[in-house]
Amino acid sequence: MSKRFPKPEITLDGIYSKFADESFCKDFLLDIRFEKGFACPFCGGSEYRRIRSRHLLRCKFCKADISATNGTFMHRAHIPLRLWIVTAFLIMSNKCSVSAVTLMRALGVTYKTAWYILHRIRKAMKCREELYLLDGIVELDDTYLGAPTHGKKRGRGTEKVKMIVALSKNAAGNPEYVKMSDVPNLKGITVGRFARDNIRPGSKIESDNARSFQETVGTEILPCF
């Protein structure tokens, strides 16, 4: 009887080994970018010719050459692609945020380069996040960031950074996607604006009994106990 063994985990050394060659990185990212079919970013054409010597795709309609990074956050960065890939792996495999200092040491680059790579990737993640809305059952709540403030107001009157967090759940109540944002206050108009920007109309919102959350506009409110 055969035994089923778990797939080996991807390690940092494995990423460095697989993506050591820059030419391989270019071809890999090209294949990932157009894995659902080629669409020219200039004319929308669907047919291309591969220029293997230059690691490019040439559109058969407008004759434009498309590289792995053309039109992406990595375009014209003049940084080896393997560093972008390693950074993406570090971000996805760490529960905590990856700092520029940590990245500087891991990649063996200057702090300025590490900060630039992180800034570009985080900006791309933010743009990507703005493309979708939470829907279905969405739990909406507030939280606060910052060090404890002794002798000062607590709760919604605290001087800490105020955050609104929205979590979508499936029918079984398991978490799926999350969105969060820092806000100047937790008034009803602010919560409503966050909901309209991040939650699909008609979703069922679970929240506490705070008045500002019950005033959320354009969604069905379900109290959360």
Automatic annotation (TrEMBL):
Q: Where would I find the Transposase zinc-ribbon domain in this sequence?
A: 21-64
Q: Where is the ISXO2-like transposase domain?
A: 134-216
NCBIfam families according to UniProt: transpos_IS1595
Q: What is this protein called?
A: ISXO2-like transposase domain-containing protein
Which species does the entry assign this protein to?
Ruminococcus albus
Lineage of the source organism?
Bacteria, Bacillati, Bacillota, Clostridia, Eubacteriales
